[in-house]
Specification:
It is built from seven helices and nine strands. With about 220 residues, it is an alpha/beta fold. It has one domain (about 5-210): 3-Layer(aba) Sandwich (Rossmann fold), CATH 3.40.50. The chain has a seven-stranded mixed sheet. Helix 2 runs antiparallel to helix 3. The structure holds S-adenosyl-L-homocysteine. S-adenosyl-L-homocysteine binds near residues 144, 145, 216 and 217.
Length: about 220
Amino acid sequence: MVDPRVSGIGMTSARTRERLVQRLRETGIRNASVLDRIRSVPRHLFVDEALSSRAYEDVSLPIGYGQTISQPWIVARMTEALLEGPPLEKVLEVGTGCGYQTAVIAPLVGKVFSIERIAPLLDRARERLKELDVRNVRFRHGDGAQGWALHGPYDGILVAAAPHAIPEALLAQLAVGGRMVVPVGPEGEQELVRIVRKEDKLERQRLGAVAFVPLIQGSV
Ligand code: SAH
């Protein structure tokens, strides 16, 4: 049986989701498995019920604690940029938030290690992913700027909040051949960057202007 709460009706229906996927295609998202995930992850379950009619608009929405669920286009773009290259075994995610990005990427990689500094957000994300039967994720409450050295190095690192400069600890936990996608810069001047670690250097690609909440050091 399909659970109607997950499959959606009306403004959360399959047709509404398909419109979003079409829009992402038109705005440059190419990776078919990423588009499939955007189609199948029920974004309306990651926002407050009062906002569920807007869940399949290509906008960021409030999730409490001054934080937001990222715009679907940004989630798709970051996932696509991270996946480009050899398959990813271990991915570190900094800034779990509501867990939507986590749910999108998890089945496309081996294992996700996800860190969030706001405990109640993390608890809710954990619950939702369990409900959606996404099982290859380990969560941690803490300061993601420090990474999660125990499980590193990672062949993928995805940062969902913007530091002024990329934290050294994260660069140190990026494996050779690994890639990191991270928004960098102060509010109003952020840019999405893809870093690839080669044997002897870091390669840096610029993916365009973005607007993220700031990466804040320390957990609460
Ligand atoms: N990935 C989410 C969006 C997260 S918004 C989505 O799918 O929509 C960014 C998140 O990063 C917020 O929840 C914020 O609390 C968290 N964050 C900010 N600084 C952090 C830090 N130093 N360590 C861990 N999480 C952090």
